């Protein structure tokens, strides 16, 4: 008796159904060198054809040797980082030292997979220096599959930037004997220039990438930041 | 004859649990009485138990949540200037496309450091006001001379909105939060229905994102005086009322300064509807006639 009325109601619905997700766009990128790592992200936040803000920072320092960058749904990304930062603090209290980037990378994977059936719609990159002080980049999908690489790019500009990185940064295969370092051969400054070019290029074609790019450069001395303006249209 | 009320919801009608929902209750009235035989046919449409929630029917019914808003406010705008932050809304709450409540204050003073404005469902906003009121009471009871600043209120609202969307039971609002942060700097941010949030020099929630933000982007500079900021705000409101059918020409501008929050009296802006293009919108368009 009620079903007929409910069907009629469904037909008369005037509002779009809401979605718990949005895509706020943005591109993040990281490159690992022998003794440095660079994490970069643009600062645009969009929703559909709207630019919501031009100064939304996608990169956060999670611990002394770990940076994390996320694109995708901004509210999920912020929540995820907030949770992880709290866990990093707990780790510090329990172990009397800061969490390293390799352990952090595993923790992020577990946190993402924990939400396998209502995922965080965030595309993440973790960049840091490992126990030997070598640059490390970890790249993820939304449900926690991850891999350690030397460079990676995620987000709306991924398809534009990734092939360029493949071409410019390809290194010795890890299968080759005798084993050779697979870190990118570029110097820190060369890598910075390459990253800036990548973002300037993506901003030409991708409407969700632009406004400015921030680069976090981490090496033995610590972390420093650089910023470069991008197209604002 | 007293007309039977129609139930809007299957479980609780307005004042009546209709016949057929609770078989045990119906059985009590079935059978012979002094006035003759009472059958289900006779009962249908007459007997109902007043004002009771029927637990069994509640179990059978699927969970329902706010899937559509009913009484809604449209755009809310926020703009920083040299001496503080402005908030602006109109005073209209619509029932669908009916201009239903025309003197609704859509701005709330949270404390001396913070005020918020909302778009979307009016009743959900009332609920959020209750939450904020609780926070303010807590602040008062602590009696430590500090109050939560605008950024803290903004972060709190973000968590509330995000948690509700994660329960698939969203609050149908977005907010503009204005005030001062912990460092004593002006703060202006917005929180969306699914927890999306950002802070900027100027923000707009709702349709104002399309109409007011371009005006803000063109005229904003960090050293705006209050008078200049009010002028920009008024031109943004003018643009909104000309193009947003849910907007009414009765506005309120609130400001948060170091001295506290002041919510201004309602005012109207001069509008001009006599343009040739409004009478005959296709006259000069290519292909029009």
From TrEMBL, chain A:
Gene3D superfamilies linked to this entry: Glutamine Phosphoribosylpyrophosphate, subunit 1, domain 1
Q: Which GO terms describe its biological process?
A: proteolysis involved in protein catabolic process
Of the GO CC terms on this record, one is: proteasome core complex
Compartments, record wording: Cytoplasm; Nucleus
The UniProt keyword set, sorted, is: Cytoplasm, Nucleus, Proteasome
Which InterPro entries does the protein's record reference?
Ntn_hydrolases_N, Proteasome_bsu_CS, Proteasome_sua/b, Proteasome_suB-type
What quaternary arrangement does the UniProt entry report? Component of the proteasome complex.
Q: What does this protein do?
A: Component of the proteasome, a multicatalytic proteinase complex which is characterized by its ability to cleave peptides with Arg, Phe, Tyr, Leu, and Glu adjacent to the leaving group at neutral or slightly basic pH. The proteasome has an ATP-dependent proteolytic activity.
* Family of this protein: Belongs to the peptidase T1B family.
For this entry, the protein name equals: Proteasome subunit beta
**Which source organism?**
Ostreococcus tauri (Marine green alga)
From TrEMBL, chain B:
Q: Name one GO biological process term.
A: proteolysis involved in protein catabolic process
Which InterPro entries does the entry mention? Ntn_hydrolases_N, Proteasome_beta4, Proteasome_bsu_CS, Proteasome_sua/b, Proteasome_suB-type
Keywords in UniProt for this one? Cytoplasm, Nucleus, Proteasome
Question: What single Pfam family name could you report for this chain, choosing any that match?
Answer: Proteasome
Q: Indicate the principal place this protein occupies in or around the cell.
A: cytoplasm
Q: Which domain of life is it from?
A: Eukaryota
Q: Which residues form the signal peptide?
A: none
Query: Looking at the keywords, is Manganese present?
Result: no
Single GO cellular component annotation? proteasome core complex
Compartments annotated for it: namely: Cytoplasm; Nucleus
**Which proteins does it associate with, and in what oligomeric form?**
Component of the proteasome complex.
Function, as annotated: Component of the proteasome, a multicatalytic proteinase complex which is characterized by its ability to cleave peptides with Arg, Phe, Tyr, Leu, and Glu adjacent to the leaving group at neutral or slightly basic pH. The proteasome has an ATP-dependent proteolytic activity.
Q: What is this protein called?
A: Proteasome subunit beta
Q: Which organism is it from?
A: Ostreococcus tauri
